[in-house]
Amino acid sequence: MSSLSPADFERISNSSEKENISRPSLSYWADAWIRLKANKRALLSLYLIVALLLFTIVGPLIWTIDPAFQDLDQISQPPGSNRLALIVDDYEPWTGLSSSSENGLRLAESATTMAVRLVWDVLPNASGHRVYRNIFPVGTERAYGIPLAEYFDNSTLFFEDRLDLKPRRYFYSIVSLGENGELQDEYQSIAVDLQRVTTMNEARAKGLILPNSELTTGDSINLNLHPLGTDYLGRDMLSRLMEGARVSLFIGIGAPCLFILFGIIYGSFAGFMGGKIDQFLMRFADFVVALPFLLFMILFKIAFGIGPGESGVFPMLVALVVLMWPGTARLVRGQILQIREQGYIGASQLLGARTNYLIFRHMLPNTLGVVLVTITFAIPSAIFIEAFLSFIGMGVAPPTPSWGAMSNEGIKNMLTSPHELLLPAILISITVLAFNLLGDGLRDAFDARLRNQE
Amino acid sequence: MISYIIKRLLQGLLTVWFIATATFFAMHNVPGDPLLNDRAVSEAIRANLESKYGLDQPLGTQYLIYLKNLSQGDFGISFTQENREVNDIIREHFPVSAILGILAVVFAATGGILFGALTAIYRNRLPDFIIMILVILGISVPSFVIAAMSQLALVSFNSLIGVTVIPVAGWGTIFHMLTPALVLGLGTMAYLTRLMRSSMLEVVGSDYIRTAKSKGIPAPRIFTRHQIRNAILPVVTVLGPSIASITTGGFVVELVFAIPGLGRYFVQAVQQLDYTVIMGTTVFYGAFLVFMVILVDILYGLVDPRVRLEK
Hints:
The structure holds 2 protein chains of 2 kinds. In chain A, 47% of the residues lie in helices and 12% in strands. By secondary structure, chain A is an alpha+beta fold. In chain A, strands 5-4-7-8 form a 4-stranded antiparallel sheet, with no helix packed on it. A 3-stranded mixed sheet of chain A has the order 9-1-10. Chain A has a 3-stranded antiparallel sheet with strand order 2-3-6, with no helix packed on it. In chain A, strand 2 and strand 3 (116-119) form a beta hairpin. Chain A is elongated and about 130 Å long. By secondary structure, chain B is an all-alpha fold. Helix content of chain B is 78%, strand content 0%. Chain B contains 13 helices and no strands. The A-B interface holds A 286-287, 290-296, 298-300, 302-303, 305, 380, 384, 387-388, 391-394, 404, 407-408, 411, 414-415, 421, 425, 428-430, 432-433, 436, 452-453 and B 14-15, 18-19, 22-23, 26-27, 29-32, 136-137, 139-145, 148, 152, 198, 201-202, 244-245, 248-249, 251-252, 255-256, 266-267, 270-271, 273, 278, 281-282, 285-286, 289-290, 293.
């Protein structure tokens, strides 16, 4: 047995160093943040959402073109299209050409967006002709396109088209007409590529050339820049998408925040009071849940009424809040009921905590994780509902752009200019996807029990 | 069980009353005048019309008349189409929406269950990835875009083979129904697939599956008899709300595919402010959805006795 000296019984100094916790203490939120950071998909969608918000908030400061401005030179232009325009002399009326050669349907002069001048010869057995224009080749189905003019004798063998011309390829056809004006089988068709032109006066009036510029007829100028093209009224897609993002995200984020706030107050009150009050309040919530959702969205919207010049954003916001709060209220009530029975609430009560303190210090903070997850899932569904309603024409009133309203306008020109539908649709999809993935990530981070098995 | 059913039905009736009341007062707040017409109406005619429709009565009396008519199944007469009862309109257009909805639910349920089970079985392998990408598309792409794209695809498909096998729009034969039903069910199918996948993953790892394997039961039999049967329960629970969302989601699909269903008619009625049609359709849809949910709940109670005991 080793000998013990009195020094061994000396008290070791009680420095704070020894009580140091070797790892930093983790709060609920810090822990959740670490788990979220480990989730690549959720993080990526978080970046996407930040980028979207920047696009919405900062974008219009950089790209300052008015979303309502109509650039009539460039209607339904695809993204990044050629925007060169040739300066030509002012338009002069055309009295036609008498054709004598046997060359069939042809151009009298080079085709421009100002006018396309066609000449042709009499088709075999024709007592007249009808002129058609199409944006697709005639093909075996004889799809001639829209009829432009018809002549019931063979004295007129020329036609000038000035109808809504765009710098693209058109297919012109002439079809022979019988004696009674009936359509016959013979036809001729040519493909015509139109060049975009503008006159000196027009270019000056639109501010495309400076008054003292040296440019003359025959030179080319650049029209206004539209990086994402234009819509069917010549409005800039990029600035409209930004403006539309404001509307869509305002409804998509504003409405969930409001109805979740209401749901928290309602649900926590019901859960905390318990008993008869709780039963009554929750039965009422059940009723609201049972309302056919979309029908009542529309009903509320018309009940509010949209006056002239109003955008209809506010009625939609209110309708969403009125119809969507019960989900959150139920959830929060369930959470509160659960938390109420926890040991730490009892301990706090023993220490003399008051009701307000209990609710705001212990109960609500512990429900916040679940609430945050609900918000992230509510945002995409609110964006979807807005898009859906605007698409069937029951959402925001034109000319206010929202992604749904833009899709509605775009679907009408889907075949000729698909970008008008695709761009807003892609933005809706990306936003909805990003919020959904972030919601998944948050759920995994906050609540181990709900973690989905992947 | 019978007392449970009776209780649920009474609750349902109460809910329908609530829906009817909410509809009545919401419609009463709609700005505009139902009797305002393009033609000038003299005071006398106006007074006659008001008394005919009961519009000169106080609001409370109007409400009571409305409830009385409703309890007899009378939704009134259309404001914009002369001599046409709302009941007739519903009778004519609802079956179209219902057939479309049923087909969509069938697509969504079978597709969701099958795909969800497959992804769980082939977890982290190629079929899983492909299906999950489709699921993500189904969740995040709005139905009107899918509808438009499928129409485009149909057009090019039809012109490729030269015969119109599957029409692009319209209504009539079973071929008309296929594409709209598929588009309508896609969102729900994606949701059900996710649900089925996580539920199936839980089942795949459970003890009774290992027991079954060790007893030498062949894999296909385990798949059909043990795995799918147990994993399907959570899917059945959400089927009721799914039916609700599919039926009302039919609006867009009916518009895009030009289907003469009740959803399209409702949108039209709203645009024309046809008061009685709007009210009738809303209450009818509401009642339909309430009783569908109850029906699914009762069926679920039959399938899983635990649910019945809880309530």
